[in-house]
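Ligand: adenosine-5'-diphosphate. Inputs:
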Amino acid sequence: MGTVGDGVRSVRVSVVVEVDHLHKAYGDVVAVDDVSMQVEQGEIFGLLGPNGAGKTTTVECAEGLRQPDGGRIRVLGLDPTRQARELRQRIGCQLQEAALPDRIKVWEALDLFAAFAPKRIDWHTALDQWGLKDKQRAAFGSLSGGQQQRLFVALALVNQPEVVFLDELTQGLDPAARRVAWDLVRAVRDRGATVVLVTHFMDEAQQLCDRVAVVYRGRVAAVDTPQGLIQRYGGGVRVVFSSAPDRDLGWLKQTPHVTAVARQGPRVEVAGDGPVLAHVGAALIAHGMEPTDLRLEQPTLEDVFLNITRRTE
Ligand SMILES: Nc1ncnc2c1ncn2[C@@H]1O[C@H](COP(=O)(O)OP(=O)(O)O)[C@@H](O)[C@H]1O
Ligand SMILES: [Mg+2]
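Predicted complex:
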């Protein structure tokens, strides 16, 4: 238990996953250089970063599947290396590269996983929630990629874990299935579980996570709520419109509240602050331009990511 206070009131938070200076290499390849993070009870915590950033290695160390070379990890107060058996009963793991025998039936897999759980669990609910009811008797090998993915999540939840690790949850799911999966993850959290979500999808992290750690080259580059990250690293609003690529827009830079102008083909992107939209609009009209697509764009996690990585290059 720890205490975070803003000076006026303080809230007790319980840290369920604690990673301090984790280091892990595979031979010459440093997968995780130096990762520290704290996941609080009841949150959806995202690990966001490009392929190869070290996200999977970090969670596999926390799950007790890999042994760290350095640093310290506690999950639910347990040491994942020395107390792996105890931990396994209280966490759920959906692995990025999971596999089951092709001929095992969906219900058999669920029944098998449920048998390892300390409490007796009815897996029919999980089957229903993840849209696999009519696949109950299907062989694993006959399922589509998306159905296999949903089965792995159902398997991760079958022991009603206190902490669930989901690694690239929506990989291979179509847009509709992704949204269903997001709702289910929220439902898992609402029932009291803590969720650690690994993803390289910016929109997924922005939609789903309470807090996000941006992982880049084996390190945590920033941690905050998606909104907090956007405020700190997003780079402010942009006014965007289309124009013929050869049209001279040099005067835009002199417009009040404009800080920068970037052009890519017909797309013009104007960075600025405060009432920049009104000023750009007025300046455009004054120069005989009336673009029909003039709009204000808010920064997203994508911008956060680009700004953070640019700074690290
Ligand atoms: N079993 C392994 N053996 C050797 N290198 C590995 C292994 N697993 C991962 N790596 C390397 O470690 C780095 C981090 O990988 P990973 O943790 O899977 O990152 P992410 O999940 O962010 O894509 C990558 O360069 C990857 O190629
Ligand atoms: Mg990965």
